[in-house]
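Subject: Sanity check before I submit

Could someone independently write out the structure tokens for this chain? I want to compare against mine line by line before I put it in a report. The sequence has 497 residues.
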Amino acid sequence: MDRNSGVRPTEATHSAVVDAGDGGYRKSLKRRHMNMIAIGGSIGTGLFLGAGSRMEIAGPSLAVVYIICGLFAFIVVRALGELVMYRPSSGAFVSYAREFMGEKGAFSVGWLFFLDWGTTVIADITAIALYAHFWSFFTPIPQWVLALVALVIVMAMNITSAVLFGELEYWFALIKVGAIVLFGILGIYFIVTQTPIDGHTPGFAMIADNGGFFPNGIGAMFVIALGVVFAYGGTEMVGVAAGEAKDARKVIPRAVNSIMWRIMLFYAGSVVLFTLLMPWTSYKGDESPFVTVMNSIGIPYAGDIMNLVVLTAAMSSLNAGLYSTGRTLRSLAMAGTGPKFAKRMNKAGVPYGGILITTALGVVGVFLNLIVPGQVFEIVLNLAGLGIVGVWGSIIICHWLFVRKMKKDGRERPGFRLPWAPVTNVITLLFLVLVVLLMALDPGVGRITLGAFIVVVILMVIGWYRVRGRIDPAALTSTIDITDDVPPLVVRDDEKE
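---
Independent answer below. Compare away.
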């Protein structure tokens, strides 16, 4: 751009990539929605229910695994945040994979993400049914019926509008955070005052007298790594929601940066409190550790209140799963690599076609709750974990390719960026590969899940060869020249026209 063209110094003309899959959405999510979506995405069923089964295996050392996996979760979201600063998109990682890895990459990422959240939807409705059975009123109702009711209610709310989704996530997240903070305050009080809980005196003796910090050895930490990765699935939700956010480039940095300390405080901090308040052997996979503690302290209705909170958390995760898969499936459908029905949007700008497809998968989960109610959560948890590993890996690879492209084109990356790239990219990819390989240490569900995932990969290869001839070039990313006051990239003076 000519320096004498009259354009304000804060403006810049630059090339921007657009994706047909982003059309039709409304920029209706506000700053407070985005902040709470970031929180809600990083606190879900994996903590409120999954922590119980993880602690059965690793004991107090679960806190260490949460910290390690949380660090890599932050790296992934920070990389995604930089891509959002470059180009906000409702297709998120599918759209970025389309730009940097081609349509084959977008196809793979999109369906892995659907595997992730589609199975997470099943895990969530299962968790809701389990939580409901805590109350005697719901005990006579079969688990599968409760799962179906939860699925239908959240689906109906989700297809109404993106604003309603944002409002639900705002209040769901507020309840979750408030409950964890109050739990932390109460737990610290019991430790400081040495008030017994269920006959146990809180303190470090709860760890020392029950096998120490690594009661089942260090190897147990590796076995549960995939389950912990599942717990952090949803942190990438902020990238999907950015496509429908007002001033996405202004709110993303704060939302992303806040994820790290929340991970340390809420996940690792909660586990430490659990093991200081009661022996780690007191916690079981079919009940939230929060409920176990609150139900044991003797305060009237404390367990009921906490159970209501964790039920809300599962509803929040289910809400987010339907939201994100609806957008992802539409991005695939617009390119011709997803079901045509997923293209459909209602007058409120909601891709109801994709949401209904995910709901149909949720019905499969209802059937699983009918035939294997005791094992369904662990089965889908591991499958979802593998989907998350695939999506996280794609985000890191897309970011790596993005960094290379910026360097090749002589452009500066956005000011909000992933530090020490591409070294951090390489380390994160190695970690994700290790997590998958560690599943082989679990002779039960782990190896079964790996076998199931191989079947998924084979089906994806077959699917690609069936749909590649239907790809619509008009729906793929294209480049246009735009001028705005918040450019996605800082362009060098010698590149301006």
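---
OP: Matches mine. For the report I'm noting this point. Residues 223 and 443 are 10 Å apart (CA to CA).
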